[in-house]
Amino acid sequence: MRKRLNLFSKKNQKEAMPLLSAKNRLYATIAGVVLFVVFLIINFFQFSLQKQVTSLEQKKNETYTYLLSVKDLEAKAQILTQKETQLQTYLKDNVEFIPYYKVLTETQLVSSNSANLGAISISKDKSVEFSYDISPGVSLIEVINVIESSAFLDKFEYLKMSSFSLGNAELAKGYKLVFKGKFKPIL
Question: What digits encode the pLDDT tens for the residues 117-160?
């Protein structure tokens, strides 16, 4: 008689590992719960850090776009600052010609057409050299009285006649008075 092997049948085999004792099962359960809690904590911190990173990236992008928009304004402000510096330099070096020119043109001589204002030279320190071309028929004493009037002389620190010319072809038999002086500051 032959014996056959039945590989599909179950035999009582002794397990290679003895059954876990109750104490070992308790330790394994506690270790599993602790590892699960640690896993949850790590995932919570990872999630919160990811949220912070996303928030910081968004703020960085917003700040970057703001800086790009402000860059144009900053360039304009820099140009404005340069123009202000140029203006301050100009004002410091400016002669402020107009008020002093008006002093010379608003005298009775020029307004009455008795004289024409000739050459004018005003420097930064308000030193001035100017000439009046006097028409023929106007009395020299009348001209001197206008120039020596307190209304005219009060506008100068000092004023002196530097030259006097009579009747050349340019003046058509009139005369020319050239003065040098220094203006007082006009506000």
Answer: 888 888 888 889 998 888 877 777 888 888 888 888 888 999 99
Q: What is the pTM of this model?
A: 0.50
Strand partners, 161: 179
CA distance linking residue 80 with residue 87, whole number of Å: 10
Q: Amino acid letter at 180?
A: K
Q: From CA 12, how far away is CA 106, in angstroms rounded? A: 136
Note whether 104 and 156 are within 8 A (CB).
Answer: no
Residue owning tokens 């030279």? 121
Residue 184: partners with Cβ closer than 8 Å, 6 or more residues away: 126, 154, 155, 156, 157
Q: Which two tokens stand for residue 137?
A: 């028929």
Partners of residue 175 on adjacent β-strands: 134, 166
On the CB side of 163, CA atoms within 13 Å amount to: 9
CA atoms of 72 and 82, how far apart (whole Å) = 15
**Token output for 23:** 């104490």
176 pairs with which residues across the strands?
A: 133, 165
Task: Give the start-end residues of each E strand in 41-155.
Answer: 115-122, 127-134
Lookup result for tokens 């085999």: 13
Check residue 182 and report its DSSP letter. E
